[in-house]
Design a protein that fits this description.
Elements lengths: L4 E4 L6 E2 L1 H13 L11 H4 L4 H11 L8 H15 L6 E2 L3 H10 L3 E5 L4 H10 L8 E3 L11 H10 L7 E5 L2 H10 L3 E4 L15 E3 L7 H14 L7
Parallel strand pairs: 1-4, 1-6, 4-5, 6-7, 7-8
Antiparallel strand pairs: 2-3
């Protein structure tokens, strides 16, 4: 029997990357003369990828993007972000202990993020976390990305695991919708990057610290899914 698996989102779930994402965003905005985004606005901007961050920043400032400007600003963003990894980004408290706890219990772990695969790997390697994951799948790893369930199911397959013994951990509606569409239970952290509380999206469980992510909780979620007859969506 294959090992059970926990699949984590990255930004806002495992690693607090907001300070560096904000720095790179403001680096782009400075070239346009637009007022920088401040920490208090972060949940309205961060969490949906660099293109959406730029678009939202322009929208918040009631500015319009010129034709081709979004592509140019995204390239500038990615260059700045990549050159400064890991910057101020740090794992959330309890992350490493949680990963090791599940690995000791025989679980596989993987990453499913809309962040580009190369950027995700570079960040995780810089933080010394990459070696803990069987698969690190970004927004460009497959032809689809979250909230398409194929992104999550593809990650599980790449890790050599079974979606019927899988749980997703994320911080946003995108993660929750992805897991539900795949027929997989989902644990939401309530400290990530979302402008609405995760309870509104009805995840299977909510945690406020990784100390709460217990092996018993995950085993209960997998067992409940199996007993209900719910199966992972192969689409």
């Amino acid at each position: 029997m294959t090992a059970p698996i926990i699949v984590f989102d990255l930004d806002g779930t495992l690693v607090d990357t907001a300070p560096d994402l904000l720095d790179s965003l403001n680096h782009c905005l400075a070239t346009t003369g637009i007022e920088p985004v401040h920490d208090a606005e972060i949940n309205r901007i961060v969490g949906f990828g660099s293109r959406v961050m730029i678009e939202r920043a322009f929208s918040v400032r009631q500015k319009s993007l010129a034709p081709g400007q979004l592509d140019a600003l995204q390239a500038l963003f990615l260059d700045h972000y990549t050159e400064n990894v890991p910057g101020r980004s740090r794992p959330y408290p309890g992350v490493l202990e949680a990963i090791e706890r599940f690995q000791a219990a025989g679980y596989a772990t993987a990453i499913c993020t809309n962040k580009l695969e190369g950027m995700s790997l570079a960040l995780l390697e810089a933080l010394g976390l990459a070696r803990h994951f069987r698969a690190i799948c970004g927004g460009d790893t497959f032809p689809v990305r979250k909230p398409d369930p194929g992104h999550l199911l593809g990650t599980i397959a790449m890790a050599g695991a079974n979606p019927e013994r899988a749980v997703m951990v994320g911080d946003s509606r995108t993660d929750i919708d992805t897991a539900k569409a795949a027929g997989i239970p989902v644990v939401a952290v309530d400290f990530g990057y979302t402008d609405r509380h995760v309870r509104e999206f009805e995840p299977s469980r909510i945690i406020s610290h990784f100390d709460e992510l217990s092996v018993e909780m995950i085993e209960q979620l997998i067992a409940a899914t199996a007993s209900s007859g719910t199966t992972a969506n192969p689409a």
